[in-house]
Each structure stands twice: as structure tokens, then as C-alpha cells.
């Protein structure tokens, strides 16, 4: 691994090592570019992943304090934990469930196709869909996505058999075990899926793609990566010319360090990325770095999510098998007569016993609540993953009161759901409930809205600099050598789980950066 | 989300001012590693009576009739452990328990439910409810009771151990699923 000097002005600094940061790091280092990567978390491995759900949660999750508000359930039920993502090398690719659907052409032209929906801040993506498709194909080959490029699908689990029978009875056509970045057979030095059901705790066979054991070790092998773990970026500095030139961070010992930079790529997930920009306010950027449009942190999207559980008279044992290994895609269509714009996927879902009462159920207690868990062994599950509408007032800000261990204001997450979001979620639940009841469910349970696992759009790409934070390359409109390299840059969320799109955009951004650096434009 | 989910030896053996005691059912999965079927959980901050009231409260919040008392005692031990390190938490527990009245632990379920309904929005109730959900479903006793098998990596996953053994619905055609890897 390369040791890059703190005063080396030629280094690219990437903040975050997940789907965006990890992919970008490998793409740059393999082209001979020196990269310093700052990762706030520790480094785990296939061997060190805990198989106790509570311990794994503590091992991988971003647990620094946060605050939240608004009318969405997490602000009531889990105000200090509005989002569930990772703080570890590999970022949220360590605990993701590996669904890799593509956005569709209509979804990246949401403003055009959905119209001006009152109370939303929809825009179109500045990237031609054909170009996105090109990088989707690259990403799918790299990640070994099932049902693409001749890779077979995953086999059907018990939980999927229930979903399939129910969906077919309803007449749904696009029902299968999903496009998944999980190896059904060995590929690329990684093992195959042994249907453990412990995707979220870190996949101990490496069947699930994660930058922790793909892109990051490959980047290290180039000799061009200096990965600094337990290093938390606290501020990005700029010079008199308005270009960023250094990143301030706290190292593992808590000491403040200053790494000079040729350019900076921020990939800290869509809550910490805008927080860092806001923390980097200066006389020149009084509202925060790259925030002349006042769009940093706004338009926060997290997908319209919710669980529907069907409880049957016979055992299903849904914890056995790849957690998300199944999908119904028929509702990923633009069909406003359903009462909302945008669409949704119904994805297979199971939660381990310790976790389900914490995030998977409606609020409750007593006999009725306990009865749900009495049926745990006979439970089947689906997860609604729907398109939510961006709103300027759904945003990440710096909390006025709460400080982290370093004395810095924590992220405050505010969400008021749009009526379109609730209409979509209601529709999805009615469909799921009807399906489970059609094949004999004795009870169907609808969860509260869980903490957000998909965080997006808080530094979005926009054609007009007034509408967003970054241009079509994820480059800040205000700062020529500052880039956003994670889900924050998505213009709108669509109904696709975001990781494949984040990886695709990172591949595209890496080509652009390498080209511009070679041409001495950066 | 980080419960203490196993009972230690000290937890079984200690006898001091505050304790909760019980006897494991014959055949309990816990009996295998407990020193005897009789168990006792030492309380460091709460009295016997307070412990008994919290036992009744957790059972009312999450009533699983055939789940061992010992499983609920883990919740009380976790609450007691928090209170032993945090004076404000101890006060909240003490005052909350007192607000339930002296007869709460021995009351009928309907009366206990009514009493808890009256305090449902208090930090005391919400704290005990949250701790119940965090701890109760994480113990080996709970795994056994609910039939949850837990991690499977050490046994080679569920690939050859029943992930697709459901027979009461039709098999999924290969075009919509995929081949087994062996």
C-alpha cells in the first residue's frame, strides 16, 4: 500500500469506501492515479463478521448521533437512528442485500414524464439514458449480477415460493429471483451463495459483492492507494482561487490531520456527504461548500419503504436463504390511474428474530403484537421499494443543538412524506396483502416505515445549477475540483435499489476524472 | 440494539438483596448450560418487589405464555444493569414502577394492560417496551421458542438444510429461479 505524504498536493482524496468511493478508488488507482481514501470505520473481513445479529449491528452500523424530525415514522420510532447504513471499510456494501435493478428510461426523465407535481422538486437527470445503460452493463459484468450476461438466477427459497405462487395468482408476469450481485456459482475469486440468510451481517462466503473484498484490495494491489481507516473527515478547505486543496480529518487516535489534495471526491453516503459540505462553510461559501444554490442537503430521498408480512398455517422458515432473492416488477410502471406517479418493486424480505421487532413491525405491544411473533416460523415477507418524490423541505441540515464526540453539529434529517408517497405505499400494501390472502394467509401485517437504508439525492446532478449541486459528472457546480461520488448525486431515486446506479456513476466519473487529469484540466 | 443476551454464571448463582428466581421447565434449552434448573438473577439497583413488577410488565408487553420466565428475567436484568450505572434511569424506573401500584405484579392481565395503557406515553413505559423488544427476542431461549435457527455459516448455510424444502406450494419454474450450485 502506498504511503502518501500529508503535504502531497497531487493526491486525489476520496472520502468514504462504499459502492461509490470504493469503486472510484480502484478505477483511479488502476490507471496510475494516487489516491488517499479516508474511511471513518474499522476494517472487518469475512472471518471477523459476527454471526450474532446484535453484535453485527454494532460492528457495522453508523451509530454516531443524529437527530430527525418530520411526519415520517422513523422520526417518532427511532429519532436517533433515522437511517441504517454502515461505518466500516466497504461502507454499506458490507450490509446491503445486493439487489441490483436498473433505473428505467422514464424514471431518469421524471420531471418530463410525471409533470410538475405540486409539493415536489422533481427534475430530469442530465445524463442521456443510453449512456447510463452503457455503464450499467459494465457494472453488471463486474459485480456478476444474476440474470445478466449469462449468469443464472439464484434458486428459489421457501419465502420466494410463497411470493411466486401469490404473485402468479394475481396475474403478475415479471416475477423472478431478481437481479442480484450474489454469486449463484463461484465467480471472480468469490464464493457462491450457501443461502445463509445473513446478508445484512456481512456475507461470510463473499458471494455477495462488496468493495471490502473486491475493489479495495485490488486498489491496494496497484500500490497507488493509501487507505486510512478510522479517519473521519471534518472539513474540506479551499484556496483563494475557490478550488478545494485539503481535507481536515481526525485520525484513529483523535488527532487532527490535514491532507493536501489535487481534487476531492466525497462519498460518505447521502447524510454525511451534505453534512461535510455544510460543515465546510467559509467566507467564500457562507452557506456551506458548493452551496450557492442552497440545494446541499435538500431533496433527500430514501424510497417509499415498508414491510408486509403474511402469516400462514404452515412453516416457511423465511430466514433460510438469500434475504432479497425475489422480486415482482410489474408495478414499476408509470400508471397515474393508480393514484400516484412513479412505481414500486415488491422485493422478497426476511428479518432475523432479534431484528424484526425493532424495525420490521408496526408499533404495538400486548397480545395482538405478540401474536405476530408467535407466527414467526410461518411468516413470509415482502418489502416495498417505491419511488419517493423529492421535496426541497426534506433535507439534511446541521442540528442546532446536538454535537458529536468531536464537538461538531450532527446531521438532522427532516422528512415530511408527500401524499404521492403514502398513496404509493398504501397501494403496494393492498397488493401484497391481497396476494398473501389469496393463498391462505391467516394474518397479514403491515410494518411502520423502517429507518432508511437507501439515502439519495442530497447533492443531486442537475442541468441547471440552480436546481442541484453537481453537474452531469458529479462535479460541484461551484467548485471545479470537488466531486460527489455516492448516492447523493442521483438526480431522482426512481424505484431501483441504488447501489448498481452508484457503481455505474462511479465508473463513469472515473473515466471523466482520468481524462481530465491527463489533459491537465484538473 | 446491543442487548446482553446470555445469562452468566454469576447471574445464576448470586443471591443478594434484589433477586428474581425461578425454575426452568424440564427440557428447556437453557437447562443444558445452567448449573441447575433453579435460576436466580441478581439485581444491583432494584429491589425484589421492583424486579417482580418489571417481570410482570415485560410479560404484559410481550406475552408469550409458554416462553420461560428466565427469558423475561434477562430483560429485567438489562434494565437493572442500566439503572445501576445511571441515576436518572434508576429514578425513572423507581417512579414508574411506583406509579403502577403495589398490586401490579399480582394483578390479572386485563388490569395490568389497563394500568400500562394509562402510562403508555411516558418515558418509563417506552423505555421498558424498547428494552423488552431489544432483549427478549435475542436469547437462546427465544430462538428455541420461536423456532429460529440463527446463523448457519458454521453448518454450511441452509443450502442443503432446507432453504427450499417447502412442499405445500408448487415449485418455481427454472426460468424464474435458477439452478442449485451443486
| SS-derived structural category of chain A | alpha/beta
Rg of chain A = 22 Å
Give the end-to-end Cα distance of chain B, rounded to a whole number of Å. 37 Å
Shape of chain B: elongated
- Roughly what percent helix of chain A? 10-25%
Q: Overall mean pLDDT score of chain A? A: 97
Low-confidence stretches of chain A: none
- Terminal CA distance of chain A reads 25 Å
Indicate the proportion of strand residues of chain B. Answer: 5-15%
Integer count of domains of chain B: 1
Q: What is the molecular shape of chain A? A: globular
Tally of separate helices of chain B: 7
Q: What would you note in describing this structure?
A:
The complex is a heterodimer of chains A (about 525) and B (about 180). With about 525 residues, chain A is of the alpha/beta class. Chain A has a single domain (about 10-45, about 55-515), classed as FAD/NAD(P)-binding domain. Chain A has helices spanning about 20-30, 55-60, 75, 110-115, 130-145, 160-170, 215-220, 270-280, 355-360, 365-375, 420-440, 500-520, and strands at about 10-15, 35-40, 65-70, 175, 225-230, 230-240, 245-250, 255-260, 265, 305-310, 325-330, 345-350, 380-385, 395-405, 410-415, 445, 480-485. A 6-stranded antiparallel beta sheet of chain A has the order 4-11-12-13-10-16, with helices on one face. In chain A, strands 5-2-1-9-17 form a 5-stranded parallel beta sheet. In chain A, strands 3-15-14 form a 3-stranded mixed beta sheet. In chain A, strand 7 (about 245-250) and strand 8 form a beta hairpin. Chain B starts with 8 loop residues before the first helix and ends in a 36-residue tail after the last helix. Chain B has one domain (about 10-150). Helix content of chain B is about 45%, strand content about 5%. A two-stranded antiparallel sheet of chain B has the order 1-2. Chain B is mainly α and about 180 residues long. Chain B is elongated, with a radius of gyration of 20 Å. At the A-B interface, helix 2, helix 6, strand 4, helix 9 and helix 10 of A face helix 6 and helix 7 of B.
